[in-house]
């Protein structure tokens, strides 16, 4: 049996030297959670002097509700000897003397030949690492948004042409209403029909603008269950005008009854827009007479949802294919080389994959694979 805390012998000179020299905080506790050893690094990290910490329950270094539950974890281990966190590193929050919390990497082990068991914890402050990760995530979000705006900017001419059609129709029907109402005996039913057409064309123009705004806004990433076919279909009003402007056919082949997947709709639509835009530009630069882009959805044998964007353009050379997803790799004269890199980052953040393969008989094919929610 371990002696009560007050009867414990002081640590050996070698052990004390190890505790004092360690860069990371080291804490040894008994089976009841009482602190037996508290290194100098632990003093600096938590703000307690060794004398203040020794004999206290280690839960004082933990925020709630973990602190309250900790004694239960110790009792469970003493009764079952089943290790849940022992021998495994994990990231948790810790609490300083002043009550502030901070992230740490915690590793816990059992002191050999101790009965009842004693535990040693090694605590590494990861505050700076966490801040760098958050900063990198914010930069990635900004880069993603910039890439989205760039893609929309490239589509501007086709979208402007598409908007001109309902606007021109509105003007035509408005002039017709003015002419009809100017007659001595106007046909009210015909006027009402023209007004309904005006309303319908206004809704059509509004839908195009709404989709553009939805893609352009810089919202916080937000995932939810989505039907991938509807996500693809929402892009049609934006992609078809651009394809027509280039004289390229755009076709959808969407498999029915696909399972829903947890995605950020805007981000996945950005990926698809970028893939379609790349195909449009590739076909356009090669001056193919009957250019075609096909977007397919399907379910794989493993149960994943797959989206393929294929074209009948010149394809991707073997040399470029090996580094096509690298940042700043571009075959376009004015390209930034960031579109595919950003797209792969987005797909990976969704625990999916984005790969390239040659299309048969000619062209390129990019495949996005995502798991159901």
Layout of strands and helices, then pairs:
Blueprint: H1 13-21, E1 25-29, E2 35-38, H2 40-46, H3 50-53, H4 66-80, E3 89-95, E4 101-110, E5 119-125, H5 127-154, H6 156-181, H7 188-216, E6 224-226, H8 228-233, H9 236-245, E7 249-254, E8 261-263, H10 265-286, E9 292-299, E10 305-311, H11 318-321, H12 339-349, E11 353-358, E12 364-370
Parallel strand pairs: 7-9
Antiparallel strand pairs: 1-2, 1-5, 3-4, 4-5, 6-8, 9-10, 10-12, 11-12
Helix pairs in contact: 5-10, 5-12, 6-7, 6-9, 10-12
Explain what this protein looks like in three dimensions.
The chain is built from 12 helices and 12 strands. It has 373 residues and is of the alpha+beta class. A 5-stranded antiparallel β-sheet has the order 2-1-5-4-3. Strand 9 and strand 10 (305-311) form a beta hairpin. Helix 6 runs antiparallel to helix 7, helix 6 packs across helix 9 and helix 10 (265-286) runs antiparallel to helix 12 (339-349). The two termini are 51 Å apart. Mean pLDDT is 81; it is low at 1-7.
